[in-house]
């Protein structure tokens, strides 16, 4: 895929540029298509089972006739046994094949959705609730199985059986068939009335399940704060409310499903009595004989099952359509193109040069500008510090370099080439990024370090551990590098988490190292050590730091003071203290205070 095809100009994830939703049935067909052979097999097996069900009564009638006439019955009996044997295999096998196919469809849908979610653009994630997105992968995809099995196959086999039965009935007496069909059409009218309500209720139910996931994720994700704030009960109420909404909506769906099913049931009874009345009159007038009327009435009952499966298919389709709509909604969130990461570099790569040229940026059209013409240059090698009040847009600078967002105007050049023209994997492979409050992922310490450099050699790992002052910690741990760190690294201290994040970035041997307040939680000893590390790294790579400690900033080869969306001044510490009042003030208060 071309490098630029992914990110579009900053727009909301549900923005107007999103492609229009395809109708649910078309999307479902897309999910079903790869499994069409299996669906065909499952459908055929269901049809065989149904056909044998239809044929058996005829065979019984034949058998009884032969018995009465004193003819041999063995051949008929053998045929019947064979038929029963066929259904004993085709019945369960059909159920298994369809179920299995349904699960394969669920699997494919889950994989597809997960691949998309992991590539979502950051702007889409800004607006999304992770818990809600998760529910689309876990709960909504499950409903696709019903669409594949009950709905599609139920509709096809139901329709075939109804047609077959109606054909036989038409041969027996076309007039009675017309009467039966008239009643059935009425039943379907009621069902059609109920189905949109089932659809709407299912949508609401699944939306509430998503809301419940989001509410639960919010509470469990901040359980310490929830406990410390005594907010368990209030969070509980939020989750319970969403669960209650899901219940209410599902009950509403069940009500309309029952009404639809009831209408079908009623129609069958009405059809039976109407056929009995009209058929009786026709027998009286000599149009048909009693035997035909009895056979016809039997077939009205034979219609029950396929009609029910047709109606079941319609209602399952409604539930499935609601799920498909939610899956599609998530799949329409803007994502980056899926591109394989570049192979690991064999040699240490040259440090990169960076330039911001009149960069303008805002997070959304209705939000104020963060950057209003930011311009600065960073030569290869050395350390550049970014300084400015909180909210000045320092973190945003790094996000733009990583292309988590696209600037509205201006350009960002890495090695003289606009980052927009870089392939995303190549661009990100060149950068080591320690984000502000960099998370440690659940798993082992080793998993965390290898996240961005899965093929790193053991000796590189050792070296980086030393550099990040983690070797002491690892030596203490009974499981060493294989120690599990808990969800978001809760088993580590804040400073340890920061050092893990720094080690993770260093292991990538980046050409450009971005450290966003990466030392804010370190104690004085570790901070001094890492200051050395950063200075050392700056000898071979280009280092950009957002630092809040004067001691780190003074080491920088250049300091960029950023405020009110523009660069206020660039220089060394000594130059800026003399020339820039904002820097002088920051240096005099915030930095000094921080270093104590
Ligand atoms: P700094 O790192 O200098 O403290 P940031 O770059 O994090 O500042 O933020 C700059 C401004 O952009 C702030 O006003 C902040 O509220 C806003 N902002 C940051 N991230 C987002 C976002 N994802 N969506 C909307 N506004 C944001
Ligand atoms: Mg910041």
TrEMBL record:
The chain crosses the membrane at residues 38-56, 76-98, 152-170, 176-195, 256-278, 284-305. Pfam families: ABC_membrane, ABC_tran. InterPro entries: AAA+_ATPase, ABC1_TM_dom, ABC1_TM_sf, ABC_transporter-like_ATP-bd, ABC_transporter-like_CS, P-loop_NTPase, Type_1_exporter. Residues 40-318 form the ABC transmembrane type-1 domain. The keyword Chloroplast does not apply. Residues 1-19 are annotated as: Disordered. Keywords: ATP-binding, Cell inner membrane, Cell membrane, Membrane, Nucleotide-binding, Transmembrane, Transmembrane helix, Transport. One of its GO terms (molecular function) is ATP binding. GO terms for cellular component: plasma membrane. It is found in: Cell inner membrane. It is a multi-pass membrane protein. It comes from the Bacteria. Residues 354-589 form the ABC transporter domain. Residues 3-19 have a biased composition (Low complexity). The keyword Membrane applies. Its main location: membrane. Belongs to the ABC transporter superfamily. Siderophore-Fe(3+) uptake transporter (SIUT) (TC 3.A.1.21) family. This is ATP-binding cassette, subfamily C. It comes from Micromonospora citrea.
